[in-house]
Every structure is written in structure tokens, then in C-alpha cells.
Records
---
Amino acid sequence: MKDPGMPQLAEPPPNIPPLPPGETGLGAVLARPNFRRLWIGQIFSQLADKFYIVLMVFLIAQYWVPDNLGGNTPLAEAAAAIRINLESRAQVITLLATGIYVANTIPAVLLGTVAGVWADRWPKRSVMVASNALRAVLVLLAPLALVPGPQWLGLSWGYWALVLMTLAESALTQFFAPAEQASIPLLVPPHQLLAANSVYQATSMAATIVGFALGDPILRLLRNGLGALGIDNGEFWLLPLCYSLAAVAILGIQLDEPPRQTRRVSIWQEIGEGLTVLRERATVRTAMLQLVLLYSLLAALYVLAISLAAAIDSLGPTGFGTLLAMSGIGLALGALTMAQLGERFSRKLLATTGLGTIAFSLVLLGQLRGNLVLTLLLCVLLGLGAALLAIPAQTTIQVDTPEEQRGKVFGLQNNLINIALSLPLALAGTVVSRYGLLPVLWGLAAIALIAALSEQPWRPS
């Protein structure tokens, strides 16, 4: 029995322009101008997030790690004090980049749920525009980190300033993400949500691949190209440009949200309301658990890919990125397929098929390890299964969560997913070292299969 105090499902907002009721697919959802503006904003915002990490590593390599490491540098002495031996330039860059990665992760783990509450309290378009505009202003300060100054733990103050900047940039991102996800159901009707989420997932994966693959060449091109024109530090212009374009695109969205009533409740009470949605709406709870499971499996794959690549002579352990890229291609292809055909099938069937596909791929990856072609194809298949699971789950959360609670629920979702990404990254390598690759792959496949069977696909929806 539903709690009478719980908000009921919201009707589709009246500002969505009508299209023929049966029209679905990629073309139909992109034909909506407001969704198209949100999508363009997503492209530039997510590219900027990836370019940000690449820029930080670029600056570390250019300004704080010399080509010829001396034996008694202040950094080496500081590292030795905590029992870390820095024998190569790559090790130093990796160590300093880890500081950036940690700073980027901390707000994602700590602020996701709280940011989701504010995404419900404030107008969502204003949250998205302000988040991108403030990040554009923030990254304009990055060149100041190159100014000579005092050192701490063997590093210039500029490196530590970039760590603090990364904390602030990641904190602003936590406000953007739930507001963006909660805006999608306000811009497209229910029968196009699956296609809209497919576009969202495909864009996220494409931004990851393009951002990390092309970030360094683009930064070098800007640095050298603008330098030839007499403009120094051209690499610093990319991020403000991307964040500003995202803000401008989203500013043009017409987003009519239901009026908010002033409520005298604390943030923690509102977080509790989001948890109540999960407790009382089984479909939302199940979809959330599916996403947490999926991202845990994908995070474990990031680590296991090193061992899988090491078993292939033509790749070796450093070629693990090729396997991850193939799974990304599979996810993108799956998302595009879902955009066109997903509405023909029930979301339960799609999720079950996705989990089963993931389990099948993990088993065969263990059995056929060492074979380059089959391993690449199985990585594509695994990515396809991830799309079949992630997109219906995200759509279910959007449809079955009351509009006034979506920010809280998506903030909680982002919190759980970031934790789900962190724990396997820390544990997978140790478990593989102790038990071997094959038992770990089988164990992950068994978890995916149990989750698929728990959906009881043989029962009608």
C-alpha cells in the first residue's frame, strides 16, 4: 500500500510540443528543439570534463616533472619519506596525476546526494547554466598556477592550487549532473524517454572516448598554433570555451517546471524523502540496484582488462585501453540501437537480456583469453549488454520517480554509482592476484546471471 503522503507520479509537462504519438527513435527525440539544446550542452560539458583531466596531466608533465629527474630532488625526498620510490619520469607523473584523480573523486562521493536536493530546490535550467558558467570562470584561473612561488612537499604551490581547483570543479559538476538527468523527462514525452536516454548514454561514451583520445593533441595544437600567433598558453582556452558553449546552449532551453512550494525542512529530511522513494517504489529501487551493479562490473573490468590484454601477445598489459575502447564502442552501438528499436520491447526484458549478455561475455572472456579477435568481439558484446541494462534502468527511474523528487533520487544515484566505481577499482587487482583471472571472471558472471534471473523474465510485466 502506498503512503498517502508520498507524491504521486507527475503528468507530462504541458510545454512539450506535440509530435505524432507513435513517433519514436533517434530522429524524433532530436527533432525537439529544447532536448536538442540540452544534448548540445551535454556534449560540450562532458567533453570539457574529460579535457580537464587531460589538461591537468598535460600541465604536470610540462611544468612540474623535469625530463631529467635528479636523484635528490625535493619531490623524491618527500616521496621517500612515505616509502614511495620514484625511479622514472612516468612514475612521477602518475603519482601527481593520482592527486588530481582523488581530488576529482572526493566531491562525487561526498556531495552527490546533497547536490541532488538543491537540484530540486532550485530551477534546473539555472542550476545547469550556473554550473557551466562558474566552471568556465574557474578554469580561467588555471594559468595563475604557473606563477613561481613557495613549495610544499617538494612541489610548487601551483600544483596544490590545481588540486584545490579540481575539488571545486568536481563539486560544481555534482550540481549539474542531477539537474541534467531530472530535466530530460520535462523535455520529452514518456514514449520517447528510452530514445532520449539512449542519446544521453551514447553521448557520454563518445565524449569519454573522444575527450581522452583527442585531448592531448588538441591541447598541443592550441598551444603551438596560438603560440605562432603570439598568444601564449593557448592550451588554457579550450576549457573555458567548452563550458561557455554548454552554458549558452542550455540557456536557450524553455523548461517549464511545476512551481515549488517553500518548505521549512532540512537537507537531511529531503534526503530522507529521496530514500523513501526507493523504499516505497520497488521499480525505482530495482533499477537503481541494477545501475550500481553494472558500474561495479565495469569498474572491475577496467582492472581486469590489464590481465586480459597481458594474455594477448600483440597487446600486452599496456594495451588494455584497446579492450576498454571496444567495450565503449559496443555501449555506443547498443545505445543507438536502443534509440531506434528499444520501445518495441519491455524494459524488464531488455534489462534481463543485458545482464545475460554481460554474464555470457565474462565467461567467454575467461575461456578464450589470449585470442585477440574473439576478445575484442566479446568486449563489444559486453558493452552492448551494458547498454541494454543501463538505458531501461535509467528510463524506469525517470518515469517512476515523482518530478519533485527526481533531483534527490538522481543525486543519490550518482553517489551510489561513484562508490560502485571506486570499490572494485581498489579491490579487483588484489583479488585477481590472489585467486587468478578466471575465477574472478566466473564470479562476476555468476553475479550478473543471478541478477538476470532475479528479474523473473518468464513472468509477465
---
Amino acid sequence: MPPECQTIHLGGASHLRHAGGHLLEVALVPLGLFWLLVSLTNLTGGLFAALGWGVAALGWRVLTRTPIPAILLVTTGLLAARTVVGYTTGSAFLYFLQPTLQNFLFAFVLLVTVPLRRPIIARLADDFCAFPISLTDNPRVTRFFRRVSLLWAVVFLANGVGTLWVLARATLGDFLVVTTVGSYTLVAVAAGASLWWFRRELRGEGIRLRFGSPAAA
């Protein structure tokens, strides 16, 4: 006999805005500021504009006593390390080589945390969509996050190889355009596949996943 059907709501437009805000904050805005200041001034201006945004985002949360997303802490820390290398060497190649190599590091971290009860990908997912405890404690959901960690490890490996190849061959402007479009397309496809997979796993538990408040649904 199939399990009794249960519906879990994860929120609707507010969650999408929340996720979009994180994407803008940790990736698109720093990249845009870097390119703008490099065009208007020089490499140093671009380096510190991107880093300044990350530090300001952290400082604002500290001053307003709002929760600091894990992804913001990670990306700002890595950005600070990149800025030191880029500034001391004066090399845009080395500045962008670091996030390229970080793809391989992230893939390694994902693989290492697979055996944990909550792999790192599950913790990062909470920054974009808060999951109820009834989901996070579900054995099938736990198993899903372990398996999807393998998918995202492959995504980061492919992204790292592709970005490294473009970095070695393209100009800075072409590199920014090609890697931004290519990377986000790859991530979007993987995210769509992950969502489909997640909903499929929940259906196996008799759980329907809906976006939007219970009242709206």
C-alpha cells in the first residue's frame, strides 16, 4: 500500500527572491564591480571594488544583527585570498586562476562530506531555501543529498576544466563573458536536474513538494 500523501510547502516568490538575492550578492555584483572598475581605472581598482562589496555585505549583517549566510562567509574569505594574490602579483590571470582551481576544491569537499549525516551541499541548500525538519530528518532525503553531492562534484570538475581551458586561451573580457555564461548555464541545468530528482525522491515517500504558502496553495 502506498504511503499516505503529504504536502510540504517551501514558499514561493519570496524564496526565489531570497535565492536570487544571494546569487547577486556573492557572485554577480562583485564580478560586475570588478569589470567596471578595471575598465575605468586598473586591475587594483577592480580587485578592491569586488572585495569591498563582500566586506560591506558582511559588515552590514553584523551591524544589523542579521544571520550571515554560509555562502557569503565562504565566498568573501576566498575573495580576500584572491585579492591578496592578485594585488601582490599584479596578475589578472592568477586572480582568476584561484576561483578556477576552487572548482576542484569544491568537488573534493563535496566528495569528502558524502558520508556525513548532512553533507555540505545540504547545509548550503539551507541558505537558499529553508527546509522543514520533517524533510531534513527523512532518511530518503538524507540519501538524496549524498547522491546529489556526487552530481555536483562532477559539475564543479567540468566547470573547472572548462574555465581553466578558456583562461589559458582567451582575453580577460572574453574570459569573463564566456565563463559567466557557460558556468551559470551549467549550474542552471544541474539545479533543474537536482530539483526534478528531489521531487522524484519525495514522491517515493508519498510527499508532494509545492512552492508557495499553504494558504496560497
---
Amino acid sequence: MKNYTNTESLVDDVRRGKTEAFEFLFKTYYPRLRLFASHFLNDFDEAADVVQETFIKMWERREQLTYVSLSALLFTMVRNGCLNRLKHELVANDYQVDYLAHLAGDEQLYYTTFLNEADHSLLVEDLRKQVERVLATLPPRSSEIFKMSRYEGMKNREIAEQLHISVKVVERHISRALAAFRKQRAAFVPLEK
């Protein structure tokens, strides 16, 4: 297998459909991409699926590759793949809950969580308090940026512009916050391997 040290030649060979170039790309980035995806999905098997799908998409669209940072492109594609998976899960879960809520007869007794409205409100309030506790452990800037991102729905670029910082700094603050939430979650729910 050829060892590519020049990004342009690697991109050219991938665009031409040279399997050795694609194999080099795969072997170089696969481990890091799988670990990156697992931070989003908390599941190494699903992370592997997303990374494989990313490489398949790249191979199928190889003629469209330009001289960009392959690393940035791959990580962006994997991140988007993970977010699409998470969105799909949310939609599927919402559909299932909606379906169960509209069942006629006794099946309504088994409505997903067995919680009535009062219990649901208490659960939401408890969750809100847990989120606030985690945010209180963060540096003020990380907490502020996380709230802008998640509560106000701002994009990283918008946050960076408003706070006069780089997008990379925004991403680091959000990563710090997400790590704190993962740590909090791990304390209550052991992760399965």
C-alpha cells in the first residue's frame, strides 16, 4: 500500500478511483472517526456503522472531491451522520409515543412510562435541576456558550460572531459541557460496552 504524504495526490488518486488511495484513507482515519462518532452515539457498533456509511458516501461521490482538508471533510461527514441518526431516533421515539397515546381501550394503561401528568412535571423539573447543577460546575463562559447553543438554538458560527471568538473556541466550550454531562450520566447510568 502506497504511503501518501501529499494531500493533493491522495485526493487525485481517490477521485480517479484508485482503491489503494481509498484504503490508505480508510486505514488512516477509521479509528479516530469511530472514536469521534462514539462520543455522539455512546455505542461503538453504531459509531462503526456511521463511519462506514461515511466512507461509502465518499467513495460514491469521489469524483466531486476538491482539494479540501480530507480530515475536516471526514469529521464533518461523520458528525452529520451521527446527528442524523440521533434525529431519526427522536422522530421514531416521538412517533411511538404518539401512537401509544392514541391507542384505544386498555392499551392506554401501558403508555410508555406509566407516568401521569403530575409525575411527568416532576420528572421534567428534576431533569431541569440536574442540567442546571451540571452547568453550575462549568466555567461561566462554557455554561453561557452551551446555553446559547442548546437553549437559544444558535449555531456555533453565530455564537462566535456574537462573542467575538473563533468557532473552534465555541466548539471547545460545548465539548467541555457535553463531557460534563456524559460524566454526570455515567455516575447514574453505567455505560454498556
---
Amino acid sequence: MTAGAEPRLFLGRRFAVMGLGRAGLAAATRLAAWGADVAAWDDSEARREAAREAGVRLVDLAAVTLAGMEALVLSPGIPHRLPAPHPVAAKAIAESVPIVADVELLFRAVRASGSRARFVGVTGTNGKSTTTALTAHILRRAGIPTEAGANLGPPALSLNILGSDGVYCLEMSSYMLERLATIRFDAAAMLNLSADHLDRHGDMAGYAAAKRHIFDRQDATCTAVVGVDDPHTAAIADALASGPARLVRISGRGVLKGGVYVAHGRVVDDRGAHPVRLASLLGSATLLGTHNAQNAAAAAALAVSLGVGANEIADGIGSFPGLPHRQQPVAEVAGVRFVNDSKATNADAAARALACYRRVFWIAGGRPKEGGIASLAPLFPAIAHAYLIGEAAEAFAATLAAAGVPHTISGTLERAVAQAFADARAEAPAVVLLSPACASFDQFRDYEARGEAFAAEARALAAGAVP
């Protein structure tokens, strides 16, 4: 059932939508198509105008009561608690109106349609986009009707209503997970945890608690897939071991008795009487490094829980095309390979990329996250030279200088690409890696715009036919 032939699933029900970016606009239009009475608002005049053109009814939610609304659909980027609640969120709390994520309403709509489609949720600090996309790819190759989105790609309320044979693969951010009420994930994965979004969750304990909501309401028919390659998620696995969901521990770092793991480039399920090889990562250009090994183990475990066979999992993993901005080769010029890993918005993500190379010309910087790049010190020997951009440049330079790592404060990405190419070309074959360990918002709209700018600079060098 497509968005063009909508059932009146929410006829006569009232919703408020605050925030009309990609997800919010999809929520407002889809809820209205399902028969709901929707009042929507955004603090941005440009977004309000775009919503008005899309036929959305605009109401200044800060100026009216929300009492009687079934829920407030609040954009994930708008806080309802820390660091300070948005006024509309505060109003909803004061008037006892539930605050929900769009994923919650997708689940309710699917069930209201009579469908028993299964839901798969994937979370973690890093790797959730790749794991979500890889799981969806495996399922589709196996012939299972699959919709993928939420935090990754299409917003939840732009996805099609699937029949009972379908599966939703949803990437879940900590912001979304705090705003769920009834959805139950038939299979849920927690990949890893490292410090991130602490301003929204208060501290690491609050962040972990938000992530753990992905396992809420699971029962004995459900599967909980948990990485054990970091202490935070290993502790969560131990806490979930008593059920009620079936626990599957995963690792990308080697043999894990009783779990699903990757060793010597092979994905192995060791939960039965004998280990079963599910797939091979040898020769994969899109699943490099131990972090992607963990992603592959998670996707394989999720697929097994949904009844997919080993041959189909091997086919899906072997044919996975990868995702943009995640260790994506974008050009090769005069023996220098340019790799776009702009999605690495924190040090832990950058570490996963740096660990894939013996020697690399590294472009880093942007708006810094807490802790900087000090945690990357064990990987500094792999850095031939670093080129630093954005607000973090001076602080990163100080860290690198103390460790004796050659570096240049480039300032802009354009200058960094040119400088890195000049140096890398002198010892080609070589790799220029954009893996910023920072947010992008000081110089770019988002990490995608940053990655596209990097790719454009690299391709311009290639188009220039450098001799």
C-alpha cells in the first residue's frame, strides 16, 4: 500500500507536529492523509512556507493549548528535557500530552491497517546506518518485502505500509528512542556505545539508558543483538542475558563462543552444536575494518533471527554496495586514492577509519566534540600528515604537536585537499582520508554536504588530468 492510496487509519484523531524539516514535514502530510487533524509549526519561516505549499495546516503551537491532542510529534533535533526543553515541548509536558517520535506512529499505523509486519531496530553510537542498510539489503536479496529508513534515509512516516510478510529496518537515534511508547522491535541491535550527545542526555549513563530503550517491550519471541566489543554494550548484554528476549552477542574482533562473530574475514554463527559460516568479508570494498566486521555480524544475526538462510546472507553481504560518506572511495588521481568518511563525526568513528590504513594523509576538524582526538593517540603512527580544518584546528594541532605528528592548519576543506594531494602524490600509492572526528556545522550544512564538497574537490583534481 503506497502513500498515494492512503487508508483513513487515524480518522478524527488530533496530532500536533513541531519541527517541519524532512521528518516533520513527512509526519504532518502523512498523518493528514491518514485522516488525522494535524496542527503543525516550525520556528523557521522558510520551513513554514515550504509546509504551507505542501498543504500543511500551520498553527503557532506555542500560542495555543495542546490539551486534547493525542500526541506531539517532536522533531528529533528539538529537546524536550536537556539542555533545555523547547517551549512547545514544555507546554506538552505541562498539559500531559505525550511526546512521540514518528517511528511510534508508523508502528501504530501498520498495526491499525491489520498488518503484522515485523520491525527491526538498529542503534549504537557508530555503524547503525551501515548495519541498517546492510540488513535491509540482505532481506531484499532474500525476497522479503522491506522498507528501511527513520534516522537513516527516508523518514519513518514516508515509508509504505507493508503487509504481514514485510519487514521494517529502522535506524534509531537516542533522540528517537526516548520518545517511544508502544512499538516493540521483533529484532533489535545495540552495536556499541561511546560518549556522544551528552548535552541531550546529561551524562554517559543517561545516553546509555536512552539507547537501551530499543529493547523495551521485547518478549520471548524477540531477539536482542548486542555488541560486546566495548565495555558499555558488554555490560548491557550481561544485563539482558536473563531475557525475556533471545540474546545474541556479536563481535567484529574475533572468535566469540556462543555468539555471532567475524574472524579471519569470515562471519560465523557459533550458537549451535557446530559453528556455521554465514558469509565472507574477504575482498569486500565496502565493509573494511573491524567496525564493519561488527556491522556485518550484527546484520547477519538480525537476518538469522528473521529466518534468512546462510546462502542468502552470504549473497547479501557479498553484494552490499555500501553507503555514501562512510569510507567511500570517490576518486583516484596519480596513484592517490581519496576516501570520503565524512560521517565520522566523533573520535571513535574516526578511529575505526584510521585503523584500516597503515599510512594515511588525514583531513580532520570541524566543530569539535567533547574529548577532542586524544583517544586516537594509538593510531597516530599511521598518520603521515594531518590537515586540520574548522573550529577544531588549533586544539587538534596542539594534540598532534605534543605527539610529534606532522600537521598543517589548512583552515578550509578546499585547501586541505590540495595540500594533502601534493604531499600524498610524492609517495604514491597513497590514501587521502577525510574522517573529521567532528561535527560539520561550523562550515557545512551537515556531514553530507561536507562529504560532497570533499568528493567534488577530489574529482576536480581527476578531471584536471594531473600528469
